[in-house]
Amino acid sequence: MEDARTGGGAARIALYALLVVLGALVAVAGALVQTAWFPGGLVLALAGAVGLFYGGTQLVGGRGGVGAPAAGWLVAVVLLTAPRPEGDFVFGAGAGSYVFLIGGMLAAVICATIGGFARPGAPVARRGE
């Protein structure tokens, strides 16, 4: 049976699609929480984004694992910032909203650039022995 990390085209596509959907859900939840429980909600929202981005990299085993949830997160945030015809929108004009937007983007970049990705088939190295 093929694993999503080792090959399997359909399994890999399904995994990336799931990460995109999870990214959008984390963005919507974060947008609501960061305003409702400021400043703790902001920290919680950013922690959720970081957890998803880093978890995606570890699940996929490479930098593509942060791209999928970050894309879903970014699309959802952009859609939530657009004002509706009624004049309502989710994000306010406060500093917390900007910290959430910029902090989420920085979290995605940081998670994509840090090392520690598992290489399938690579020998395990031990240091200090």
Automatic annotation (TrEMBL):
The keyword Membrane applies. The chain crosses the membrane at residues 12-30, 36-54, 66-83, 95-118. It comes from the Bacteria. It holds the Pfam family DUF6113. Keywords: Membrane, Transmembrane, Transmembrane helix. InterPro entries: DUF6113. This is Integral membrane protein. It comes from Streptomyces hundungensis.
